[in-house]
Amino acid sequence: MTIDNPTGPVGIADLSPLSRRKEQRAWYWYDWANSAYVTTTAAVLFSPYLTSVAEVAACGEAGTPENPCTTHLSVLGLGISPGSLVFYIVTVATILSALVLPVVGAAADRSARKKNMMGGFAWAGSLSAGLMFFVAGSNWQLGAVLLLVATLCLGASLVVYDAILCEIATPDERDRVSSRGWALGYLGGGLLLALNFGLLTVMADDTGLAVRICLLSAGLWWAAFTLIPFLGVRNREPRNVVPEPGSLVRQSFGQLWQTLRDLRSYPVTLTFLVAYLFYNDGIQTVIFASSVYGEKQLGFEKATVLQAFLVVQFVGILGALLFGKVAERVGSRKVILGGLLVWMLVVVAAYFTPERTFVLFLVLAVGIGLVLGGTQALSRSFFSLLIPRGREAEYFSLYQACERGTSWLGTLVFGLVHQVTDSYRPAIFALILFFVVGFLLLARVDPERGIREAGNTPPVVV
């Protein structure tokens, strides 16, 4: 007798839960692997570092809160504020993601080698992350290209990684599995960040070189630990694939078009995607902008900002596990809504935080850590229930287009408001709009209806 995936074949004694647990434990480690890059590079060090490199190129020296760099870079004939550069790069990366990631997802749904695809994108991204070591002086162009490539590869690898969740966990297991993956990711990212904090402290006389070594360490960490899920998760044959003629590339574009056309048949799924686009844009922009805001607006040293991010990482472990436990009792959608209310409070508090007030900065870090992992982990598991079977990777490609620093509305608004006002305070406050819109849209989502429309079985608690 057999039972449909993910439970696998069953004999007289059902050993499939043990098999799933083994794969789930291996799967967790990709959160651990890529979180080193997300935390050390994307969230903490590279944004202010590349901003300083761009300021050197534009003004001859890095700016400070008392003496900001106001000379613009010339990019394709446009005047770009050095302080807005990284946000525009992420915006471009996300626009490209909107074109590339859905095709990656469609191809993954048709592939029997998902873990190979995940590993390939992960190792290409980790190579780009490691090469950031060579960004120095005024060479912001190399940094811009590497950030663009690493962001695209991270998004592509996560499309496949998230789709694998649907293969290795039943609906009732997904909140737990997703939350534990996020928690392990925060632990891994936090450990490397702590090591890098020690390096920055020891090499205080040469901060530039220390930052570059930290960037290299994140790339190596990402590459090395990707081996665990690559070896521990097994490939599976694709399921319920929509028939399309031609090569894999042509089939992928054909399936993408079919999915976009059929998305109207899943109104609850569509509503959640739009809600997620808004509130996750806010989350990702807060994460991406926090280090720049701490250094350039509040006047903290790199080491101080790093300490705050360590607080975020380790509080995030507790937050992810706590949110997962609460979701088992009341349902993931309600918990996400509660988390969004806390995000709104964080944005308002950040706007009013005085310069060089470390205690308040740490309070903000605790607030972010508490809701960050929980809202993201539960969003991933909740969305997995709203996806029609056989199209997991493709739907997760749409999800990933606004995930983990690949948002574009938030970074674009943040960059534009900063360019107009020459201040990060109104830029950070403007992000509250994304949380409000996301909250209102998510409140309209009917979980049970959406799960049944997608042809899936609702968990015990919705």
TrEMBL record:
Entry keywords, A to Z: Membrane, Transmembrane, Transmembrane helix, Transport
Originating organism: Nocardioides jiangsuensis
Subcellular location(s) of the protein: Cell membrane
Transmembrane segments: 85-108, 120-136, 142-161, 182-203, 209-231, 270-293, 305-323, 335-352, 358-378, 398-417, 423-443
Membrane topology: Multi-pass membrane protein
Protein name (database record): MFS transporter
Taxonomy, superkingdom: Bacteria
Predominant place of localization: membrane
Keyword Transport applies: yes
A Pfam family the protein falls into: ATG22
Matching PANTHER family: AUTOPHAGY-RELATED PROTEIN 22
Domain Major facilitator superfamily (MFS) profile: 268-462
InterPro entries the UniProt entry points to: Atg22-like (IPR024671), ATG22/LtaA_families (IPR050495), MFS_dom (IPR020846), MFS_trans_sf (IPR036259)
